[in-house]
Amino acid sequence: MSPFVPLHFQPNLVIWAPGRINLIGEHTDYNLGYALPMAIDKGIRFGFSKNGSQSVCRIYSRDQENVLEVDLEHLEPSPIQWENYILGVLKGIRDKGGTCSGFDCVFESNLPMGAGMSSSAALECGMAYGVNELFDIGLDNSQLMKIAQKAEHHFVGTQCGIMDQFASIMGKKDHAMLLDCQNLAYNYVPLDQTNHSFLLLNTHVSHNLAESAYNERRAQCESVVAYFAQKDTHIASLRDISMEQLEAAREEISELAFTRASYVLRENQRVHAMVNCLSQGAIQKAGDLLFQAHWDLSKAYEVSCPESDFLVEFAQNDPVVLGARQMGGGFGGCVLHLLPNAEIAAYIARVTKAYKAAFQIELSAYTTKAEQGVHCLTTDHL
């Protein structure tokens, strides 16, 4: 291990990068559809300081209790997964012509790993934003989020969409964001959490998107787009295809590809329906949409798991829960619940007992609020 293990690190710059939850619109981002994410009040805190070297960077993770020491002139993927999120960002900044020299960084997180709150995007976006600020490089938010996304593509191996990075950078307090993943157009959607909140229950079933069926799902959807693009060159994504067109082509594409694509089209419709519900205060209908989205994810897109299905079924049978669904890439992580604030504590007790009886696993519960995206904090000891 490098001797750089700071106990009293005094940074010149402190950055906060939030995680995100996605209210609805799962697996739509890489299909250039719509999503409704929000930045949350959990994230990663970074401290940065120039170290006077030409190209040596020392980046210490308090959570991993380990240090990444890297030369900016030789940036290659690492066999250690968490390092690749950082290495990919640094390479992306250099490829954009960003001029930076050696620096030290210390970071720590209160985001649970693998829970679907996008700790990876927070790590990427905080690093990109911090280096950009520290060296006054001048990249804009759109460039930073795309650098973070490409880091995940080329260094981590996950062919993710842009939603996670967008939410971490562009989040706004007390708002979700209706995001058009095709052109990054967005509208802020006010959230009134006075009487109801979003509760996250962590299944503690671990998943790794780079090793999961995530890339497989993307390829299945792209195969449908490729079929239609042969007939119409204006078709570039599933959002350019109607349900009627998809139904008409059912015999020409595989049944599995049809099932995956039809889920995406329905999910895009649910995103817009959710925005209408939130705007009109139709909280019960909003909850119904969450239940619908979950079972579509589970049955059509097949990215749920027995533990998540158990939690959603339990929620549907409990009178206080308005809606629930698997959140994030899938295969575990967190299940998102919508319920009255006054009922949260009692519900956590009920569901925790039932979940442990079924799986011998302790649930972790988190309530979240919509908060600002990546930003600078007052300089302080990290």
From TrEMBL:
A GO cellular component entry from the record: cytosol
Domain Galactokinase N-terminal: 13-47
E.C. code: 2.7.1.6
GO molecular function: ATP binding; galactokinase activity; metal ion binding
Gene3D superfamilies per UniProt: 3.30.230.10, GHMP kinase, C-terminal domain
Presence of the UniProt keyword Transferase in the record: yes
InterPro entries referenced in this protein's UniProt entry, alphabetically: Galactokinase (IPR000705), Galactokinase_CS (IPR019741), GalKase_N (IPR019539), GHMP_kinase_C_dom (IPR013750), GHMP_kinase_C_sf (IPR036554), GHMP_kinase_N_dom (IPR006204), GHMP_knse_ATP-bd_CS (IPR006203), Mevalonate/galactokinase (IPR006206)
Pfam families cross-referenced by the UniProt entry: GalKase_gal_bdg (PF10509), GHMP_kinases_C (PF08544), GHMP_kinases_N (PF00288)
UniProt-recorded name of the protein: Galactokinase
Organism: Sediminicola luteus
Lineage: Bacteria, Pseudomonadati, Bacteroidota, Flavobacteriia, Flavobacteriales
